[in-house]
Design brief:
The complex is a heterodimer. Chain A is an alpha+beta fold. Chain A is 61% helix and 10% strand. In chain A, helix 7 crosses helix 8 and helix 13 runs parallel beside helix 22. Chain A is extended and about 125 Å long. Chain B contains six helices and no strands. In chain B, helix 2 runs antiparallel to helix 3. The longest helix of chain B is centred in the middle third of the chain and has 38 residues. Classes of the chains: A alpha+beta, B mainly alpha.
Chain lengths: 661, 156
């Protein structure tokens, strides 16, 4: 459990075995290989060694990856089956099957080229279709114009075509034109919202004059470029071409759909290329001489025998040693099945430093309790639990998503428990429905008490739970001090505070139980308080610094007070869930005269209301339960800022390769 | 006619005003979310989670309003005969969540909007963005708590 101990690995081997060593370590997937830049910068190393690297091959693989990726993107659009959606998963495959599938690499590569070609053609056709559509749209107003579009003159006359604003009157326009060009005749072809489409015929000698007058009146000549023939002919020609293209596109799409049905093969090629690319990229992390290579990195202490075997078989010299005291190592957590999901909360915050204690086991306890108390509705708990159970059973999730889903599943159990403790099931739906529809009020008795009736009780319980949470956090800090040999720090900074806070509580509240307890409390408070006052400024040099430091340290009691009060949100969020569900339940029963109408309205309000409530309150519980960990709990001991352990493994996207012995 | 019930109902109204803050806060966050989703439509899920955060104040207000109305019997059943003093107690109890709700939801909306910007650049940092926004909500929670304790202490 907790943070896995990593050992440092240094390896020297012959270049001839380099490829094999890297491949085998990659297949193992739990050795981190560090970048050796700093060694090269160091003179005693840099003079002898140079950076290794396979940049050219990496670039080659990257180019192929782009090609294959483009083909997969294209195929995804035509894939008839379902894609993973929110919960994307990798399918598992044995490494022998994977290798077998890739014996057909050249065929698959040919398929990729084919797919890309098909898609390129498809895009070109769609492009052409768009162009044709725009063109046809421009020709539509001229459909009744039965002169070939390229014809601008006859032997003696000029033909002008164009548009004038729809606001202009054709008659007035014609009059104005004929006043300068008496031979002109204006034909209106068509009209739409914005303009009239017209053609004007006049004797050639009058063309210039007519044109100038028409321009003044808002005439805009229209040119059709290299189109020949009448508008109607052209429209039908382009439409026929588009119909043809439709057919071709359909054919191409069918082809793509067919290709996409076996896209798994191409996905495997993609993953193969990723693995090869990464392997070649990793070579760049190595340093070399003419004959030998060197690298160092990290590996989990418990699993080093497998690595040793590989290195021995390949004739490498290596050294595995524990990290020096205080040396920062990469961090990876390993926990049992009950704690593992709650690593999500730690992960979302960041990576612990290698000096930290893994907080996940503590989070597993407190997050579980807090979340349940905040959502605190047995029915919501059942919904959450079942939904997450179904997701985690039907999908092979990995990483953070897997942890989160399992975490919510566990929190669902806690929610069910606290729901029954407080007697809520969809709020108060049982009493409300039984009263409205059956006439007799059936009450779901809480196992413990109803927080709406006795909020003070839950408030005190929440803050007490919070104090325990804080004390555990402080206890971890004390453990870390003692582990590092700073026993005095543990006493001064933690145990005095324990005495002070517990003493205060007993002194103020203990009188209710027995006067003796109050006296014990007073003594404890004094011991703790005086201790803090005397030691709080111990790092300061002069006497004034020490006094001020001690006072300042004692003033931290406000910090503890606000930390403890922060846990009152457990009560507030719990109330929010139960009261809002009560609002919806009551709203649902307020309308309708006969029982059928009433029932229908109730069901509608019930479903909408509770879906909304469960969403908003599950979100709230998630956020606030996290906050209590991050701000109040982590604040007491957590350092963070570590680097995550990044083993050299196969970072495939589509299939998970299962290595065989 | 000014009587106890009037003040109690006025209190419920003031509590429900917290919704103003939530509406503004969600609006601010929504504007930012639109900008981020314009760049990358896949971020809808993450941004909508952040956008929903300032919505809770409105719910707290609704909660308080509903509890007052139901305690004085306004939502069916017998109306309780309230003295002026009792009515004013309800009015006072509604003030914390009403006012803190409005202002904290607006502030939280701004924090959520900034968080949405953060998601735009670093989608993996959703949890941190949520925590920053939730820090603001603490004070709405405290206001709700004090409103509720005051309400709970009112003897009829």
């Amino acid at each position: 459990m907790a943070i896995v101990r990593l050992n440092k690995l240094s390896v020297v081997g012959l270049n001839s075995s380099k490829e094999k060593v890297l491949s085998e370590l990659m297949a193992l997937g739990f050795v981190e290989i560090d970048n050796q830049e700093d060694k090269l910068a160091d003179e005693s190393w840099g003079a002898l060694l140079s950076k290794d690297g396979n940049e050219e091959r990496v670039a080659e693989f990257d180019t192929s990856l782009t090609e294959v990726g483009a083909a997969l993107d294209a195929l995804d659009k035509y894939y008839p089956g379902k894609t993973g959606g929110l919960f994307k998963t990798r399918s598992e495959i044995k490494s022998s099957d994977f290798n077998k599938a890739l014996e057909r690499k050249s065929e698959i590569t040919a398929r990729v080229e084919n797919v890309n070609e098909l898609y390129r053609r498809l895009l070109a056709l769609k492009n052409e279709q768009n162009k044709n559509d725009t063109f046809v749209l421009g020709l539509k107003p001229w459909v009744d114009y039965d002169v070939p579009l390229e014809m601008t003159e006859t032997v003696h006359t000029a033909i002008l075509i164009g548009t004038i604003p729809a606001s202009a009157q054709i008659e007035t326009f014609e009059k104005a034109v004929t006043s300068v060009a008496p031979s002109a005749i204006v034909y209106k072809i068509s009209t739409d919202n914005l303009q009239h489409y017209i053609s004007v015929v006049c004797i050639k000698t009058e063309r210039e004059g007519a044109m100038e007058e028409m321009r003044n009146l808002g005439f805009n000549p229209v040119v059709f470029g290299d189109v020949a023939g009448k508008a109607a002919e052209n429209i039908s020609k382009f439409e026929a071409r588009n119909a043809e293209i439709d057919n071709e596109i359909k054919g191409l799409e069918e082809n793509l759909t067919k290709e996409s049905e076996t896209k798994q093969e191409i996905e495997m090629l993609y993953d193969y290329l990723v693995v090869e690319r990464d392997k070649n990229k990793m070579v760049g992390n190595l340093i070399r001489t003419n004959d030998a290579f060197y690298f160092d990195g990290w590996l989990p202490a418990k699993r080093q025998d497998k690595v040793e075997k590989i290195l021995d078989e390949n004739g490498c010299y290596y050294e595995i040693k524990a990290p020096e005291k205080g040396e920062e190592t990469p961090v990876v957590m390993q926990n049992n099945a009950a704690v593992y999901p709650f690593e999500a909360i730690t992960n979302l915050y960041g990576v612990p430093s290698s000096a930290d204690i893994d907080p996940s086991p503590f989070i597993a306890v407190f997050y579980f309790i807090f979340f349940g108390m905040m959502l605190s509705d047995a029915a919501y708990g059942i919904i959450l639990f079942v939904a997450c159970l179904v997701i985690s059973r039907t999908k092979k999730l990995e990483g953070l998503m897997d942890k989160l889903i399992k975490m919510f599943m566990l929190c669902g159990i806690s929610t069910i428990f606290w729901g029954f403790m407080f007697g809520t099931f969809f709020g108060n739906v049982i009493p409300v429905v039984s009263e409205a529809f059956a006439g007799a009020r059936v009450v779901l008795e809480p196992w413990w008490f109803d927080p709406i009736e006795e909020p003070m009780k839950l408030l005190i319980f929440s803050v007490a739970l919070g104090l325990i949470h804080l004390f555990v956090g402080m206890g971890i800090k004390a453990y870390m001090y003692i582990r590092d040999g700073q026993i005095l720090d543990a006493i001064f900074d933690i145990f005095f505070w324990y005495a002070f806070i517990l003493g205060l509580i007993a002194w103020i509240g203990g009188g209710m139980i027995s006067p003796g307890l109050s006296k014990v409390g007073l003594v404890l408070t004094l011991i703790g308080g005086i201790g803090i006052l005397c030691t709080g400024g111990r790092e300061k040099k002069n006497i004034f610094g020490k006094i001020i430091g001690g006072l300042g340290s004692l003033y931290n009691i406000t910090g503890y007070l606000s930390d403890a009060l922060s846990y009152s949100r457990i009560l507030a969020l719990g109330l929010a869930t139960s009261v809002v569900s009560q609002v919806f339940n009551q709203l649902g029963t307020m309308f309708g005269d006969n029982i059928a109408v009433k029932a229908i309205i109730f069901i509608v309000v019930f479903i909408i209301g509770h879906v909304f409530n469960i969403f908003i309150n599950a979100l709230g519980s998630f956020v606030h339960a996290s906050r209590l960990q991050y701000v109040e709990f982590f604040g007491k001991f957590f350092e963070g800022g570590g680097t995550a352990f990044e083993p050299f493994d196969k970072k495939t996207k589509y299939v998970k390769i299962i290595e065989e012995e | 006619m000014v009587n106890g019930a009037f003040f109690a109902i006025l209190g419920a109204a003031i509590a429900a005003l917290a919704g103003i803050g939530s509406a503004i806060g969600i609006g601010i966050a929504g504007e930012a979310a639109n900008g981020v989703v314009a760049e990358d439509p896949k971020k809808f899920g993450q941004t909508v989670v952040l956008q929903a955060l300032p919505g809770t104040q409105g719910i707290y207000g609704l909660l308080m309003a509903f509890m007052i109305l139901s305690k004085i019997g306004f939502l069916g059943g017998e109306m309780v005969d309230l003295s002026i003093a009792q009515g004013l107690y309800f009015l006072a109890a509604a003030v914390p969540i009403g006012f803190v709700g409005i202002l904290s939801a607006i502030a939280q909306g701004k924090a959520a909007a900034a968080g949405i910007m953060l998601i735009g650049k670093k989608p993996s940092e959703l949890a941190k963005a949520m925590i920053y926004a939730a820090m603001v909500e603490t004070y709405a929670v405290l206001a709700l708590l004090i409103s509720f304790l005051m309400y709970n202490g009112i003897q009829l």
